[in-house]
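[Solved] Which block belongs to which protein?

Original post:
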Amino acid sequence: MGKIANRFAKRILLQTLFWLGVWFYFMYFFSYSSNNKDYAFWFSICLMPVTMITTYLVTSYLIPKYLVVKKYGLFALYLIYTLIISSYAIMLSIFGCFIILSEVDMDNVPPLSRNFWFVLALVYLVVGAVSAVRIMQLGYRSLNKAQALEKDMLQRELYVKDQELSYLKKQIHPHFLFNSLNTIYSLSVRRMENTPEVILKLSNLLDYLLYQASKPLTSLESEIAHLKDYVDLEKVRFRDTLVVDVDYHAPKTPISLPPMLLLPLVENAFKHGVMKDDRLQIKMSCNMQGDELRFQVTNTAEVPTTTSEGGIGLSNLRKRLELLYPKRHGLETSYNEGVYTAELHIDDPQNTSNEEV
């Protein structure tokens, strides 16, 4: 309550000082080339109500209600009405002061106060100056509101993106766990001796999912290392029927990217891969070409159907890529003579559009 009172008192003080300045401004011109200072004094006072009413009417009513909201026709109409009425009031002030102050003696009237057009221009100069300041003030406020609204919308959009990314990552975790548990289940059914070793590898991968995957970025080296762990996990399940070729060229400078970005492509190769000549053949290659990351996975497969191509893994991956690298990525899949290929390329993978949750 105290702040509001102080602000109101400050505003009244500033306006009082301003109108005192306008009065001195009138006094200076009307007393020019005249020795009748008393007439200039009282004539300036008589003009003040007309000047103040016209100024406040234009700046506090016409400009905010019509000009700012782009009702230009009504603004022009009411402005013309205001100018006509104020001109009439100024004329009455001139004649009233002439009759009362000079006792109808033209020699006692300062020259400039007798010139109707000069008095009119002097008053409207004040009205125009204050109106210009008011228009700039309202424009500045509108700009600030627009910027604040734009900032708020951007923050909301980023929040939605963060929530969507978090949701997609949470979908990937159970998807990966489901595939891995199927592997362990098949081993336990066959009572394989290496089941504990597979569980240990799964434990390492889950540690990666629970801790490193919660970070916005991880190193490309770490991502590839865990891909190899996943491949080792699958090798236990497929045994001698799996042939995997990994071609990875480590970049000269460390590269970071969001975790769990490459795993869905590898998972997809195992999920939809089929045996050819009693072998499931999978090839992976990863390299940097300048600032562009290229990752390719191929696997032996049957002709993909509309429903079999992709699944949850690739669908989530496409959504994550669109959120993280809008217009800076590409994910193409193709099938040719029994080989299914998925190729991902990302321009500047370290620079994501927003951080993941």
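(Second protein starts here: sequence line, then its structure tokens.)
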Amino acid sequence: MNYEESLDYLESLNIFGIRLGLERIQKLLARLELPQERYRTIHVTGTNGKGSVSAMLAGILRHSGIRTGFYSSPHLVSYTERIRVDGQPISEQEFADCLSTIKVYVDQMVAEGEECPTQFEVLTALAFVYFAIKHVEYAVIEVGLGGLLDSTNVIVPEVSVITNVTLEHADRCGGTLEGVAHHKAGIIKDDVPVVTAAQGEALEIIRQTAEEKNADIFVAGEDFSAEFISCESNFQRLEFSSGLLGAVKVPFTLHLMGKHQIENAAVAVMTAQLIHNLDSRITNKTIDDALSLVSWPARFERVDMGSQKIIIDGAHNPAGMQALRESLDLYYPVDERVYLLGILKDKDIEHMLGTLLRPNDTVIVTVPHSDRASDPQILTGQVARYVQHVETMADNDEALNRALELANGEKLLVMAGSLYLVGGLRQMLLDKKGGEA
């Protein structure tokens, strides 16, 4: 099949929706001769920050001369973004070719009366197969949802990473913070070290699971930390320290803005230090080199258009909105703000809006490209309780033009609310700029 046909096939698998569980993916991977066992892995979960931490780790491995795979989700524009080797996305033809191979085994399973794998399970198998074909040495694998029953949870990694835990996807992960924490802790394997930035009740559950699995645990704020030193343009100067590694403080430069990225960077550096024990190619220099170049689109990303300052952030839950607000207040405390917002209807919208908005902010409400998008008129009514000026434009392009008009190069333009929205808006913006971020 070609790429367009592969997208049609993936869409046909969407009828099965999200079905947690490992039986289908295990049976599919067994037919594919267990490609995920042909290289080492790092497994990353968490409510927020897992994508940024994964991108940092993939960069560190790559800049250390290690052939590296990287599997993430969701994508902003193309499915090919989800599967990368040494920083390069899988080509459309390679994507289609790998999917053609996997489809043969999926069809066999169905013909034999087995349950059909879901879309995400097929994509996960595709990534594992592609990494094996490309002979990667390490692959950084980001969890899709939760951890315990996520289709990526068939690997035995060198390190398990849990960024943080808040009440997200509770309907599929136990209904409570405790339930969500148990699902995140589900990626912990016997004798495999764990690095986490979790706190409170969630941390205690992760500690308990690590103890049961005889897994060493390294906790942000206790065993390691990073301190903000200064920022300039699109860079932050940070200092990493860990009593476990001695009294030395290691400075490094991070090419990701946002207050929350300080802790994310600490998690990535601690994980890299553990991997250093297995592979001496990872050094403080390669860590610094990688973090000074790392990029992760739509995560407090600044993309200016002439004199217009623009922040693109995929904040899509209360914790993400809190991080966005704190970063805006830290880096742009006096700027007036114009928001271009679209939020999914199954989110805690009132909490998100109350966290993010100030009375003097201007908001344009638009619609994310998702069946789960909130009704723009309803969202506009909710926004109106927090700000004095709000407008509604369902068409994303029209909404972007209106937001640019209202910002007028004098106010800060912020795009947020859903990755399903900001991915498309980001591409529109780059097209207007001529393709350069």
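Accepted answer:
You had them paired correctly. Confirming on the second one: DSSP finds 14 helices and 17 strands in the chain.
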